[in-house]
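Shipment paperwork, digital attachment
Item: protein structure file
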Amino acid sequence: MLKNYSQFLLGLVCFSCSTLFAQVREIAITIDDLPFVGSTHNDPGRIRRENERLTKILDTLNQYKVPAACFVIAGTIEKDQWQLLEKFRNDGYLLGNHTYSHRSLNSVTAQQYTQDIERADKVLAPLLVGNKYFRYPYLAESQGEKKQQVYDFLTAHGYVIAPVTVDSKDFQFNAQFLAIHWRNRQQNLPSFKKRYLTFIWNQTLKAEARAKKRGDADSRQILLIHANLLNSLVLKDIIEMYQKNGYKIVSLEEILSAGSLPVEVEPKAILLSPLLKSLLEKSPSAD
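Attachment content:
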């Protein structure tokens, strides 16, 4: 009897340990639209501000030693921004192809789309170190034969497709933040930050639920954010939020090589979710 009880306890301990160690929480941070959202204005003052904000993003990544993956729109690289992209590469960050023109695959032919990828590839070649990675603009992969043609092209040219499991929808929050007069942005930042982080974490919990539904014991996620004003101000808060909630921030390569692929989100929906709509409605109006 005592022997059986001891075996039961040993089994319970082993089960508890295996369960504990199975609860892996890892996330890769990916940043789209480098060098900066809304580039190609050729305005010296605007380019200077964009470069300062992108530098702030880079400094934050370096400070927290976050192995982010960044996807570049080749056709939006302004004068003097190439050196900044080289700094990302030299500091060890993965840079990937986000096409030349950032057009949705849903709005062009497969041939037009693959030509745009090739055009970007030629521009970005000096920045693409090691394996080549690709992120679909707008997460739009189309469907049917067109989807297959582009997929076959990417595979034939050695590209790894970067999926997304946590879509921050930051373009919505950033647009509202930009609508506020620049003199009033700093005072409104705390409320924006709170709502933005709340939404990202809710998206993360949804991603965890999708993975659990598939039967995954671990939570391995890929976050999508963009190189924009809002993230230049709150990236450190995003990083700290994940760390405080038990997430280890790892590289995109680590997530994709961990075994089963992450459960992707659906392409960006036109309709707003109830939570996102309520959070955006709380935003202050522009002055």
